[in-house]
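Workshop exercise sheet. Pairs work together: one partner reads the sequence aloud, the other fills in the structure field after running the prediction. Swap roles for the next sheet.
Pair: D.N. / O.F.
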Amino acid sequence: MEQAILQFFESIRCDALTVVFGIFSTLGEGTVVAGIVILLYWLWDEAGEQLLFTAISSCALNSSLKATVARPRPYAAGVVDLLKVDTPIFSTTDLGDTLSFPSGHAQATTSALLAADMRAKKWWLWILSPLLVIAIVCSRMYFGVHYPTDLLAGFLLGIAIALFWQLIFRHAYRLRFYFLMGMAVCALVLCFFFPGKDLIEMTALLSGGAIFLPFVSLIRHEAPKVWWRRLLRVVVGGACAGAVFGLSLLFPEGLAFKFLKWFLLFGAATLGARLLFKAFRL
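Structure field:
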């Protein structure tokens, strides 16, 4: 059944659909989802915090499962041919051949969108979000990088993670950091057994959350209501994270420095940005 579905998407490949599905696949890229989540975190107070908790834990769980399951991608198993696309944001040429299950695109977008929907409570988001997830899921099969079961698993795990943090933020808010720390410890242990690039990066973000976010919670400073102050928040936060990212480019190669890079970047985007917001009264 999975082979038949994938071969159907392979049979409809054309230049126009490649562009369309390329756009949807780009929207599910980790860097794009992370950028949107951080923006909402800067502008959305407690709801933004819940979205951030959901996103980083979902991505860390996904990387952990990918590393342990090690399922070959459809093109690596000879089920379909890989449709090669290589752009600065979206690429199918540098994927891990054994990182098929579960789909990171499906899990990241589902968890982030569901968390946002539950906090925003806008009826149109409940309609738009499933449509966007379906389009992203179809794009991954179109390019031949995931099986349908990879996408279904990512979708279900995304829902589970979003609902988990919804319950924590509603009924056990004071314990949220303990849960995050527990997840970070588990991810760090896995890194010793499966020291891959993706798992190292996601564990660094999760560890950054466990270390920096408790300090951020001590800085009481609500997001401004005036639009231009919100815009300044984005500029200042982006400059802080960008400065650390620029410095990280000087780091030597190696998994340890990759961990340090993403750990410090998370700290700059959260604690560093919040300190600057308070200092500039933004």
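Discussion prompt: Residues 2-171 form a domain with the Vanadium-containing Chloroperoxidase; domain 1 fold (CATH 1.20.144.10). What would you look at next?
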